[in-house]
Specification:
This is Transcriptional activator of comK protein. It is found in: Cell membrane. 47% of the residues lie in helices and 15% in strands. A five-stranded parallel beta sheet has the order 2-1-3-4-5, with helices on both faces. The protein contains five helices and five strands; from the N terminus they run H-E-H-E-H-E-H-E-E-H. Helix 1 (2-23) packs across helix 2 (50-65). It has 153 residues and is an alpha/beta fold. The chain has helices at residues 2-23, 50-65, 78-90, 103-110, 138-150; strands at 36-40, 68-72, 95-98, 118-122, 131-134. The protein has a single domain, classed as Rossmann fold.
Length: 153
C-alpha cells in the first residue's frame, strides 16, 4: 500500500505538471519545481497501519524527489487543519496531502486562501483548481486480491 500511495502521488504530480503546461496561458510557461511537501495525519504515525503507511510514503517522496517534507499528527478538526496549513505555508510548502477523506471538506473551506498550495486528499468528491482527491477503486483491488489469493489453478 505504501508503494501504491507514493506511486499515485508521483503520478499525480507528474500529471498535474503536464496539465499545467498544456493549459497554461503562455506558450513559454514554466512549471515551478516542487521543493516541499506536507502531510496531515488524523492520528499517529506510530499506529502501524494507515498513519504509518502514509508517513512512510511521505519519506519515499522525500527520497525519490529530493524534496523537504513536513508532517503533523493528530490533526482532526478544521481549526487544527487551519493552524497546520498556515504553518506549512510559512515554511514554503507547495503540496499538502491530507491522509484521510475527512480532509476534503476542511481543505475545501480554505483552499481559496492558499492559491499557491496544491491540496491532495484521498477518497472524496471535493475538487477545485488547487484541490484534488485521489480515489482508490477498491472494487478492482478486491477483485485482484481475490485472484491472487485464489492462485492460478
Amino acid at each position: 500500500m505504501k508503494k501504491q500511495m507514493s506511486m499515485l502521488i508521483m503520478i499525480f504530480l507528474i500529471f498535474s505538471n503536464a496539465l499545467f503546461l498544456l493549459t497554461g496561458c503562455q506558450t513559454n510557461a514554466s512549471v515551478e519545481k516542487i521543493e516541499s511537501v506536507g502531510m496531515l495525519i488524523e492520528h499517529t504515525i506510530h499506529d502501524q497501519t494507515w498513519g504509518n503507511k502514509g508517513y512512510r510514503g511521505l519519506l519515499d517522496i522525500q527520497e525519490e524527489f529530493n524534496v523537504d517534507v513536513y508532517f503533523r499528527e493528530g490533526v482532526q478538526t478544521q481549526q487544527q487543519v487551519n493552524i497546520a496549513v498556515e504553518e506549512f505555508a510559512n515554511k514554503g510548502v507547495q503540496v499538502i496531502i491530507g491522509h484521510s477523506s475527512t480532509y476534503g471538506e476542511y481543505f475545501n473551506q480554505i483552499q481559496d486562501s492558499y492559491p499557491d498550495i496544491f491540496f491532495i486528499y484521498v477518497n472524496g468528491g471535493y475538487s477545485a483548481q488547487n484541490l484534488i482527491s485521489l480515489n482508490f477503486n477498491s472494487l478492482a483491488m478486491g477483485f485482484f486480491a481475490g485472484m491472487v489469493a485464489g492462485g492460478n489453478d
